[in-house]
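Entry type: protein chain
Record version: 2
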Amino acid sequence: MESTISNIDLAIVISYFVLVLAIGFWIARRTKTGEDLFLGGRSFGWGVIGLSLFASNISSSTIIGLSGAAYTTGIVNSVYEWMSGLPLIIAAMIFIPLYLRSRITTIPEFLERRFDRRSQLFFSGVSIFTTILIETAGALYAGTLVLQAFFPNLIMWQSALVLALVAGIYTASGGLKAVVYTDAIQAMILIIGCSIMTMMLYEQLDYDWSKVLAKTPEGHFSVVRPLDDPGLPWPGLLMGVPFLGFWYWSTNQYIIQRALGARDINQARWGIILAGFLKVIPLFIMVIPGAMALALYPGLENGDAVFPYLVTNVLPVGLTGLVLAGLISAIMSSVDSALNSSSTLVVIDFIKPNRPNLTEADIARYGRITTIVLMLVAALWAPQIQNFTGLWDYLQQMFSIFVPPIVVIFLVGVFYKRGNGHGAFWSLMLGTAAGVVMFALGEMGYWNMHYTMNVGLAILFSAVVFVVVSLMTEPPTKDQIEMYTYKKGLVGMGMEDMPWYKDYRNHIIVLVALIAYILYMFW
């Protein structure tokens, strides 16, 4: 039976589209320079930074993927969400002050200053590839699944193209400021819509949690799983999840660009810690609903279709439109962020160094052109994701190939002051090659280790390469060590004479306690 959408729901969705485009075009009138387009004029406060970080990360691919995984294998994959607070804490304490005092526009620029141009170009290229073909295309694919639940006759590639066009237009026009302010709205819509649906599902179960436990397999609500668990075995919880999270929240242009646009270091830190608290929410309004769906609607064949199924079968008229608008919000917030960050990387890391005489207006023009080109590439690739076994697996397996050496050159490179450009470059090259080999062997059936454990092994290998090659070659310069490595006082920078309730370090204590409590609850 075909799903339908009422005129009221359709009006809500259309109104949302109009609002987002209006904000984009309004901000576009004030976007004149490259810094305006890529960093919002470095004017963001902590509230919009935190909400934008949340909205950009909680994309439709996250909602669809995590809900589907919770339905098929349990809530174990939720650790990627609520444990994000830990890498966010590392970012706030160490990497944000290093980035902001460097006045960089892209994260690969930091690598150029800490190591050399080779590492910058390699990391920038990998970032563009993963952001467009994994993040953006994954979000567009998930968005088409949602739309097809309402309009079954839609063709996937056409739907992906339309979604990409809408996000691409206001991103190219208004830049990061348009992205951040629309993200703040989208985050609130998303939280409200998903919260309402969660409560309605719980109502169907008579607000009795024992009914959920009785109708789901044993261990479905445990995050510490056995070694042979297909979702996330317990060694992967230690060897993979923390490092994937560190890469995403501390080194990913797609995410960190908001903090680079902060008014000052305190606004950036407060915004990042706010995002850490917000990241706890998806466990309760996106992941657990997928598990509750197993109790209410067993027998669904495709995990990626669980959340759209809930939207079309649980919610009444009006609320369906609100949640659909929230899902479209998620699509827009992830796509606009990815397009803006990728165009920033292309222009700042590749075009500008080869054309040093570019004016600010030229940089903004190149940024807008690049945004449109990348938008088309992502839209064309999105339909291919349906050939993978599941959206969540697609995303995480792709990241597991590229992430390990990147984690090493940042996390080890900031503390290991003897590390140099040669060590960083060969760690990137050989570490990525190791990830590709393990992935290929796994696909051929010769390597059966879970991808999260592959991450840990590749990180160990990359770290050895980094240290050995660095020791065999000349040491880095004094400037490379002084300005771009950890030193005493970095954690407390900007906190002088700060009232206790504004000190981000006290906020960190509360966040760590919350994460520890959730781990205890779902052990």
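Comment: The chain has one domain: 7-386.
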